[in-house]
Write a structure and sequence with these properties.
It is a single chain. This protein is mainly α and 193 residues long. It has one domain: Rhomboid-like fold (Up-down Bundle), CATH 1.20.1540.10. The protein is built from eight helices and no strands. Helix 3 crosses helix 5. The protein starts with 16 loop residues before the first helix and ends with a helix.
Length: 193
């Protein structure tokens, strides 16, 4: 009796293009920041209140999510984005994921400029929180409110509200809260059908 052994080949796939390209841009932005002594992050990859006649003000409303203060900041955000992003991209598609990342960047950038004008904002934490709340809506059905959505909102958003009041650090809890709200609103809208 003959037996044939078939070799199974493992293929590496670019499974979530929006999420992977986003992570690559964030990595490149951090490397560029090290090469320029932080200048590129201050000029391109962070947002702060500046003149509305400066074209960079509008660009930074979107690009601040690519900038990170260091490796720990980058790895912390990318851990969540690379974990949750592919699931969301598979469910909603690449265009919608790019849209929610851009929307979250814009909304967190605008809110930050108006409510925290003395501080710069950089990092993808708002997108992380948008993804966390968005993924909690994946099993949502209209007319129902899953307990998991309530718990995620209480744990993640509640923690940010508490830390925003009680803890004085260099973390923008406002961006986390706004990102979570964007994820919750969009998650509800996309899944209510």
């Amino acid at each position: 009796m003959k037996t044939t052994t078939e070799k199974k080949h493992i293929r590496v796939t670019f499974n979530a293009p929006a999420v992977l390209i986003f992570a690559i841009i964030c990595l490149a932005a951090l490397i560029l920041s090290f090469l320029t002594g932080g200048l590129s992050t201050r000029v391109l990859f962070s947002t702060f209140r500046s003149s509305w006649t400066n074209p960079l003000t509008y660009i930074r409303m979107f690009t601040h999510v690519f900038g990170h203060s260091g490796w720990d900041h980058l790895f912390g955000n990318m851990s969540f984005i690379l974990l949750l992003g592919p699931i969301l991209e598979e469910k909603y598609g690449t265009k919608k994921i790019v849209w929610i990342m851009a929307l979250t960047a814009l909304v967190t950038g605008i809110v930050h400029c108006f409510f925290m004008p003395d501080y710069g904002l950089c990092g993808a934490s708002g997108i992380v929180f948008a993804f966390i709340l968005l993924i909690s809506f994946t099993s949502f059905k209209e007319g129902e409110l899953p307990v998991t959505v309530i718990l995620v909102a209480l744990i993640y958003i509640g923690k940010q509200v508490y830390e925003g009041i009680a803890v004085h650090d260099n973390i923008s809890n406002l961006a986390h809260i706004i990102g979570g709200m964007v994820g919750a609103i969009v998650g509800y809208q996309w899944n209510k059908k």
